Amino acid sequence: MSAEPRQSEPPQSHQGSEPRMSGPRQYDLVIAANRLPVDRVVDADGTSSWGRSPGGLVTAMDSVMHGRDGAWVGWAGEVGEAPEPFTEGTMYLRPIPLSSEEIRDYYEGFSNDTLWPIYHDVIVQASFHREWWRSYERINRRFAEAIAEVAAPGATVWVHDYQLQLVPRIVRELRPDVRIGWFDHIPFPPVELFAQLPWRRAVLEGLLGADFLGFQRVADAQNFVRACRQLLRTPTRKDTVTVTAPDGSTHTARASAIPISIDFQGLEALARTPEVVARAAELRTQLGDPQVLMLGVDRLDYTKGIRHRLKAYEELLRDKAISPPEVTFVQVATPSRERVNSYRELRSQVEHTVGRINGEFAPIGSPAVYYQHHSYPRDEMAALFLAADIMLVTPLRDGMNLVAKEYVTCRPDLGGALVLSEFAGAYHELHQAFVCNPHDIEGLKQTILRAIHTPARDKARIMRALRRRVADHDVNRWAQHFLDALAAAPHRPERQERQDRLDHESRVERHEGEDRKERQERQDRMLRPGVEAREEAEVRREAEARQKAEALREAEARQKAEALREAEARQKAEALREADVSREVQAPQKARPGQDVPDRNGQSADARR
Predict the structure, then answer these.
(1) Where are the alpha helices (DSSP H) in 228-305?
(2) Which terminus, N or C, of the chain has the lesser number of Cβ atoms within 10 Å?
């Protein structure tokens, strides 16, 4: 979807409103997100340049925008005045200014201390401040005005994530000629939680300015439609919501699940390079060549379940189910939102736990946990993924979690095992993984042990299935599906179903050779489930019979021992009674005071006298 920059020209406006435009550079595709895809990097000599930003959104959209002419509107990560717009590759970047107060209120406050907790099951309590909301409104309008300036007539505008939920409606007011899509990278909460938000109506009305709204899970899209029906009383039909303007005109938006993915081909190619393979081997050596290397990679966020996995790991060490240096754990925790209180508290808790684990269980020179509180470049992460035997992805709630997909992509050797929370969006695509409920610490421990001890052949079969899913549903397919859905909204895209069938046929043909043996094994298992079930039942019956026989033998032995003890006790008691009688007979009689005692001949003293 390539688009050349255009000069301003009067477009055909809808509903009698002229689009707002300024400046000569306009594009047919405009991306809007809280952050630009680049950060300013200052070198040691004081010179600065722009480098790629961290984060899942940038990682995903980097592949989408590569080779396309388009504009990206976002904050450049600097406090105060924004730098002048500039071009990076084929992309025109339009920075948005944010003051320190706006960062505090709009980003750290309303976005991450109000919306984020509500959208993640209120794991921590949300805070509600009116000044935060006013800042959120103001910044959303600032983004929308910048979008209106760089969007060409009839352009496609793609807005991202929870920080910009008011933007679709404002852009529609400014530029009714453009197509507007919005994608939610985090969960959308059930109406019972969303209803806590004092500004819930304004947020829903802001989102309904879009033509199409994409979500990570079917449940998220359903939650949104249900919230509109219950809180706005708007008519809904299946996956569409229709709103009526004051002038009587109507607008219908469609909401659907289109889960995000990664650049499978690019990341797999990186993982196969000799440099990354050598670095993976070097990492294992530096970590003491453990038999099992476990890995966690997360932003330092309370939704990621880092404390839960550390607790499970600590209990496994205490139970002596595992021990260093044979098993070691690397936790990479990328710094995040460090001025928000809940995040500072989380960092303190995690670092305290890591110190306690190492202090109690690690021998000198072999830490039980290697804790890294900083980010790594892409090639280093690929090496870590390739080196790790067990990948722990245990969020308490997550929209997708691209780390899970990145791990399986970096395992062309079919090694490793993915332990995946059922509360991550990735679970709905990668359900063959070793699935866990991170709230169930005992269950999490058992899942980790199962991932460790499952035979390599079975783990390779699982990894092959996981990799195939990610390869077939990569980031380019995700982007194309979203853009097709946006172009067709509020209707479903007709060609998507046909393309899905063609893609399926192509995948079957592509994988036929490599999968023949696996399909045959799977077919054999499907054709003889009764045999396997009878064999398993017979094994269980034999085991139960052995247990019963053993229990009977133990009971009989206990009865015999008890009877023997009772007989011995009776014999002892009888012997004691006989001894008492014998002593009474043989013992000389002693006279009480005043008693007449007979002599040997039986005569009493009186008779003798």
Answers:
(1) 264-272, 274-286
(2) C
| Kind and range of the H or E run holding 87 | strand 86-88
* Token pair of 294 as six digits: 């476990």
Q: Are 182 and 159 in contact (CB under 8 A)?
A: yes
Rounded CA gap, 565 and 187, in Å?
Answer: 69
CA 326 and chain centroid, separation: 27
Strand pairing partners for 160? 183
- Secondary structure in 3-state letters for 408-475: HHCCCCCCCEEEEECCEHHHHCCCCCEEECCCCHHHHHHHHHHHHHCCHHHHHHHHHHHHHHHHHCCH
| Mean pLDDT, the chain cut into blocks of 10 residues (609 residues total) | 42 37 73 90 77 67 72 93 88 94 97 96 94 98 97 96 98 97 97 97 98 97 97 95 92 97 94 97 96 96 96 96 96 89 92 96 93 93 97 96 96 97 96 97 97 96 97 92 95 70 51 51 49 56 71 77 80 79 61 52 50
User: Residue 231 is part of which domain span?
Assistant: 27-41+50-98+142-257
pLDDT at 553: 76
Same domain, 237 and 295: no
Q: Quick one: 447 and 320 in the same domain?
A: yes
Same domain, 405 and 314: yes
Under 8 Å CB-to-CB from 86, ≥6 apart: which residues? 50, 92, 93
Query: CA-based angle 400:204:165, to the nearest 5?
Result: 55
Question: Residue written as tokens 């809007």?
Answer: 32
List of residues 6+ apart from 433 with CB closer than 8 A: 404, 417, 418, 419, 420, 427, 462, 466
CA distance 449 to 392: 12
Give how far Cα 139 sits from Cα of 111, 129, 145, 549, 604, Å: 11, 16, 10, 76, 129
Q: Measure the N-to-C terminal CA separation of the chain; round to a whole number of Å.
A: 148
| Separation between Cα atoms, residue 290 and residue 324, nearest integer Å | 8
Return d(Cα 449, Cα 434) in angstroms, integer.
10
Within a domain: 525? no
> In angstroms, what CA-CA distances link 265 with 382, 416, 513?
13, 19, 20
- Please give the tally of structural domains in the chain: 2
| Neighbouring C-beta atoms of residue 291, cutoff 10 Å | 11
Residue 533: predicted pLDDT: 55
What gap in Å lies between CA 117 and CA 139, rounded to an integer? 20
Residue that is last in its domain, among 211, 230, 257: 257
Token digits of residue 159: 């807005």
Q: Residue 439: enclosing H or E segment and its boundaries?
A: none
| Residues in CB range of 571: below 8 A, 6 or more apart | none
Backbone angles phi, psi at 412, to 5 degrees: -65, -15
- In the chain, the amino acid numbered 72 is W
